[in-house]
Amino acid sequence: MSSKDHSAKKVIPIAAAVPDQGDTSMHMAGQKIYPRSVKGFFANWRWAMVWVTQIIFYGLPWVEWGQRQAVLFDLTVRRFYLFGLVLYPQDLIYLTGMLIMAALSLFLFTAVAGRLWCGYACPQTVYTEIFLWVEKMVEGDRSAHMRRDDAAMSAGKFGRKFAKHFIWLAMAIWTGYTFVGYFTPIRVLGQEVLALDLGSWEIFWTIFYGFATYGNAGFMRESICIHMCPYARFQSAMFDRDTLIVTYDTQRGEPRGARSKKADLSKLNLGSCVDCSLCVQVCPTGIDIRNGLQYQCIGCGACVDVCDTVMDKVGYPRGLIKYSTENAIANRWTQQQVKKHVFRPRVLVYTTILMGIVTAIVVTLATRTPFKVDVVRDRGVMARVVEAGKTENVYRLQIMNATESDQHYRVTVTGLPGLTVTSEDTILVKSTEARTLPVRVQAPFEAAAPGSHEIHFEIESLDSPGRLREESKFVIPK
After folding, report:
1. Which residue from 36, 38, 299, 450 could staple onto 115, CB 3.0 to 4.6 Å apart?
2. Which are the contacts of 138, defined by CB distance < 8 A and separation ≥ 6?
3. Threshold 0.85, pTM exceeds
4. pLDDT tens figures, 76-98
5. What is the C-alpha to C-alpha distance for residues 239 and 137, in angstroms, rounded to an integer?
6. Which of 378, 474, 462, 478 has its CA nearest to residue 420?
């Protein structure tokens, strides 16, 4: 037997570094995944994002702005309230801009550092993290959970399962209630719940959103990310060899294998990887990052944290698994070289476009006129000659007040000699409401030749800065 074989025969696992290895076959396709809990830098970031996103989601509907809910999408009256902004369906351009911003942000983050959204802020990831924490508190750690699932049903097992699902369902229903609270004032919704007077719309969406949360975070988990999320399929179009991704340093880690903590790696001909499989056990999608980049990887960094912990225990440098780029691993780049290549032309283009759109939206929101006007010539009333030899046209004028205070508006008209508004020229529109009323406009018969002539309505707010100009036609009969 060679010295190499003899050394391999004496290999012993590092028990201190690899506690409770478990059964890695649980990560095979079609098998339930039991992700191990992990602590570390990236785990802390994930939990920080859980707290931030959930404080915003659950807390925002309870924030008041003046005498109303700060953020409310009131579909009944077709008005959207965003703190001091009041938006109407006609403001769809702002929604379009925000969707474009979200898409470009996703492209930018993906080009820079892969699936950051998936790993840290996606609702599927966030709620799965919360539900897994509840599961751990009720059923114990990974090993205890696996043993309990393999055991026959008992009173203790049933009690723990019941408690877990009860908590999951309570959280899911509260999530559904909060979601509906963005469309029906949440305090009004609470009163309806207490009075058992919920509308069918509220009942449906509370149950639907709650059931989706319960099913996705409690049962489907990684299946959503792997099989249902389209982002996993087209992410490769936004990746290149300078994108930061979770990578395994093959040159340093291979050949992998168990060894004594005090073993001399040069004599054993082994790399830094002790083949503990913990990187597989902590992975929420059950992949082995040592096999290279895979579309199932959501970039959460759990394997980085656990591998660094193992490296600390065996006395090896950290970074066997880390956020890096394919070029950096292949060319053994320093951190400065990696950063230099991360901020490349593609990233700069995405950033420039994104900043341009953000600036445009902020400027237009800051300078927009706080009311909207629509002028339509009343086709039900023909142009007619009235007393004093004047020609009269009737228009329907709609003014939408986008402020939260009553506003007075003055209507004037220009475009023909002697053109005047003969109906009420000062209009009161209450806060956040729209008012439609007829406006009569007269001109001397001899002001222009028979036919259609362009005129302009000017509507000026008397209580706040703002003036709008709308075009219409004035008809003089033959």
Report:
1. 299
2. 160, 163, 164, 167
3. no
4. 878 888 888 888 877 778 888 88
5. 38
6. 474
